[in-house]
Amino acid sequence: MPDHIKKQLLKEIASLEHELAHELPAEIKKAVALGDLSENAEYHMAKQRQDFVNARLGQLKRRMAELSLVNLANIPRDKAGFGSTVVVYDSTKEEEIEYRLVTSEESDVAKGLISTTSPIGRGLVGRRVGDVATVVTPNGKRELEILKLTTIHDGADNDDGDGAAK
């Protein structure tokens, strides 16, 4: 898992855990002091927020577990996959476009960072140079011919671990 994603997720987890352990109990205690809980909006809002925070924490922890299971050795060296940079010819737009396949946390379409779970990402994963992917997007069908592919391994192959690229 890329370090910046791990840090981002851990930061959100820490923030939510702090809210759950410190802020929400204080809000609930304050709301309880106001009296009748059946008509106490502050109490109900704090309890709803507590439920939301618990659910979000569960999601984030599951996502951390999923990302920690990613094994770079299982990512193909000759096909598009996580970490690949893919140059495609979009016959619909009649232009070349460069995409980098990333996690959903990193995706930014304007920067060409496409999640492997997005329609375009799913269409490109597993493809080789010369393959044509037909992708159904909200704007309609697109034909994407893969012109150039650089996998996550291509960058790693130039590094012997000393931090200096060859």
Summarize the structure in words.
This protein has helices at 3-33, 41-68, 119-124, 152-156, and strands at 85-90, 95-102, 113-115, 132-137, 140-150. The model is unreliable at 156-166 (pLDDT under 50). Helices cover 42% and strands 20% of the residues. The chain is elongated. Strands 3-2-1-5-4 form a five-stranded mixed sheet.
**Pattern of helices and strands:** HHEEEHEEH
CATH architecture of the largest domain: Roll
**CATH top level of the largest domain?**
Alpha Beta
Rg of Cα set: 22 Å
Please provide a brief summary of the model.
With 166 residues, this protein is α+β, with helices and mostly antiparallel strands. It has helices at 3-33, 41-68, 119-124, 152-156; strands spanning 85-90, 95-102, 113-115, 132-137, 140-150.
Any key phrases for this structure?
Helix Hairpins; Chitinase A, domain 3; alpha+beta; disordered C terminus; 2 domains
What topology emerges from the helices and strands here?
Blueprint (H helix, E strand, L loop, with lengths): L2 H31 L7 H28 L16 E6 L4 E8 L10 E3 L3 H6 L7 E6 L2 E11 L1 H5 L10
